[in-house]
Fold:
Amino acid sequence: MATRWGICSAGKISHDFSVALKTLPAEDHQVVAVAARKLEDAQEFAKKHSISRAYGSYEELARDPDIDVVYVGTIHPHHLKVCQLFTNAKKNVLCEKPLAMNTKEVKEILDSAKRNDVFLMEAVWTRFFPVSVEIRRLLAEGELGKVKMVRSEFGEPLMHVPRAVQKDLGGGAILDLGIYCLQFIFMVYNGEKPVSIQATGVCLETGVDETVTVTLKFSKDRMAVLTCSSGVQLPNEALVAGTKGTLKVPSHMWCPTSLVVNLKETKYPVPEPYLPLNFKNSTGMRYEAEEVRQCLLKGLKESAVMSHADSLLLAEVEDEIRRQVGVVYSQDCQ
Structure:
């Protein structure tokens, strides 16, 4: 039986996710419905992606009995309410990152999923790319010796993008870009909590962070440094240095298609899209979609690769970074 997807929100990321699903076998993945806040947006999306049902409200999607899992592609200030809508309707959920605005909201979403006994995963798609799978294998087998240092960076000029700069839209580099750097560090250090966090950054007049650098210290004298910026283009590399060797993701570390281990490069291309994409390498969302399918087939309520604990750790560290840099959202005051 195919995994039957419902798409919540007819925006750019939902478009790319739907295109990515088409790179997987049709007998495994089907999009059966899309919902938007305006019916005409849903209808237009449905036509473009050959989806049979279009809804003008998220509530109608939540009531559709023929849906196994909902992909939530709304902006993150809406994630809490939208995720709760679907979990309370006993729907499994793959929710775009960041899962929510802060730790309090993340806990509410995870509690709702547990209470309703449904699967829920934060869509940290990077973790499921073949490059990330290979990095975890190399680390598990001790190929780099004792890892001492992890570096990651993500910078893209996004000043022209409202959702990147406006506070009410959840703007800020940490939640949009820094999350990729953090998840990489935590993947390498196996979900361990850092013993210290030192963050410094600059904020826009809108009150959100534009550029942030964070130094993390972990147990056993291990370090990590990340830089994220929505103001400038960075090389967007990630590096893991151990006592026996080094690995590098040479560019676009958030959707990696190449890995350099001790100066030897291997390429892992993603499939070509059948429609133009909004974002780089978006067909790579196929890997997280397949992970969701496999988890559902096994009756799991979370993924071991991107667990509830992983989402909680991300939120807790993001909160502390924002506290040090001085970014406060309205959701933090509720």
Remarks:
- The two ends are 43 Å apart (CA to CA).
- The chain is about 35% helix and 25% strand.
- Residues 213 and 227 are 4 Å apart (CA to CA).
- The longest strand covers residues 209-218.
